[in-house]
Amino acid sequence: MWKEKAIKIFFTGAATTSIVVVGLIFLFLGKEAAPFIFSENVAKLFGTEWVPVSFEKEQFGVLPLITGSFLVTFLAILFAVPFGVLSAVYLSEIATKTEQEILKPLIELLAGIPSVVIGFFGIIVLSPILKNTFGLESGLNAINGAILLALMATPTIITISDDAIRSVSTSYKQASIALGASKLQTIWRVVVPDALSGIIAAVMLGIGRVIGETMTVLMVTGNAAIITANPFDSVRTMTATIAAEMGEVPFGSDHYRVLFCIGIILLLITFGLNMIAQKVLRRRGV
Amino acid sequence: MSSDTLNNEPAIKTHIPDSFEDGQGCTPNNIKISVKDLNFFYGIRQVLFDISLNIYDKKVTAFIGPSGCGKSTFLRTLNRMNDIIEGTRHNGDILIDGNDIYAEKVNLVELRKKVGMVFQRSNPFPKSVFENVAYGPRIHGIKNKSELDDIVEKSLKNAGLWEEVKDRLTSNALALSGGQQQRLCIARALAIDPEILLMDEPASALDPKSTTRVEDLISELKENYTIVIVTHSMQQAARVSDYTAFFYEGDLVEFDKTKKIFTMPAKKQTEDYITGRFG
Fold this sequence. Notes:
The complex is a heterodimer. Chain A has two domains: 2-38; 51-283, MetI-like fold (Orthogonal Bundle). A two-stranded antiparallel ribbon of chain A has the order 1-2. Chain A is an all-alpha fold. Chain A has helices at 2-37, 63-94, 97-111, 115-134, 142-166, 170-178, 183-212, 215-220, 238-245, 254-283; strands at 50-51, 59-60. In chain A, 74% of the residues lie in helices and 1% in strands. Chain A contains ten helices and two strands; from the N terminus they run H-E-E-H-H-H-H-H-H-H-H-H. In chain A, strand 1 (50-51) and strand 2 form a beta hairpin. Chain B is an alpha/beta fold. Chain B has a single domain, classed as Rossmann fold (3-Layer(aba) Sandwich). Chain B is built from twelve helices and ten strands. In chain B, the strands form two sheets. A six-stranded mixed beta sheet of chain B has the order 6-7-8-3-9-10, sandwiched between helices. A four-stranded antiparallel beta sheet of chain B has the order 2-1-4-5, with helices on one face. In chain B, helix 5 (129-139) packs across helix 6, helix 5 runs parallel beside helix 8 (178-190) and helix 6 packs across helix 8 (178-190). Chain B starts with a helix and ends in a 5-residue tail after the last helix. Chain A binds chain B through residues 169, 171-172, 174-182, 185, 189-190, 193-194, and chain B through 79, 81, 84, 108-113, 116-117, 119, 121, 123-127, 135-136, 138-140, 185, 188-189, 192.
């Protein structure tokens, strides 16, 4: 009897640990950021310039970092979604059994490549290509990061969309085919619409992966904190800023606390995306 | 009947039992589907053996037999639905209106437009009632809204469902009752204006009342359509069909008028089955 109880406590403990950890992260971030948020300097957060170290006047405007993150994320999703969804359609509806057996493990392998290796690839291979093709001063820019991030988000989008498409009832497909629809018509008019909520959830999780990615963007986006919508400009993302500056910032300074504020913003964004994804997934009863 | 059917007369004639030419409109001219020496395989497993029979225009033909006897597989060869299963093959001929439907040049879209199908489990799309019925016509290129409206109304009326759903055409089809869903599937099949309707145990998942409705509907539809129905229920075959084919383990044991099959079966096996001694 006591054994049952002990086991139950053990499992409950294991299950709650992750929740407690998430709570502690929030608490810790809030604790470090609070002194700045509740000071008169907080208005600086809404500025348009990020000059955290300066002899004259420090600027803590996080707007360039947010737009930088959004630009890279937006472009990455623009590449990754059509590519990922079409791949998933191919994999689940068109590919033969043998093709599936070869492709699926390879796609999962792609998800396992360390981001620093992908960043390395971006600097050595992609950057010169971009530079020469478009005649740029530097190949380290938003689009470079976006392409690599798209590559990293694709496995997530493919795997989850593939599951969603596979779960579409065969009876719908049969009904469509029996009405004289071609395979392609069946895919676009019946299969994809029915799997849509799953595909949206896949895209949401893909965005979550992209916006939180740090090492690759730090290596290849050029890290210039400017507000721009031009994909060929260098940008600085929120994640890259935290990673690059946290190590050298004076403990307890305004700069230090602002980095925690950025962390909170980032956490809220990914948190929101995950919530939406969960909600969409739950609606389809997955 | 069209002249190309007449041209096939000599070839077909050999497959007609003498008793059919009895002055009740069952001469070779009325043959809609003619099957000759059909063998069918899933991989290396043969599931149909030398099937030859004729299906008559604007009549109801029922396929009966125990589970796994090949009757559903046979039904699905008639609109080539088996094509989507990997590793299937066949030999022998199936002619519809005298044309070989397995010939190289056959357009599958046209074939399936001509040969509609209703499945065992009602399978409306998770779309509105209207969109379900309009799906087929849309696929075949009809975009005009009023034309679609007309087709949807006419099809639902033909399926005896219009009165029940005319106020909820935009609501999701999955909210309808089981019997209504099945009639919706019939309406969906009728919307592409087929000549032949294949029904694979259309009432097996329905309650008795809905079953009666579907059976009545079949009797009405045979005015305009050639109907082939697979059924588990011998009573149903007896009630709705004009002809009955009894299958057993991939063989066509007996094919004749329903009345004859149920009163004076020629084969002992048929008699044993319909009297419930096995199956």
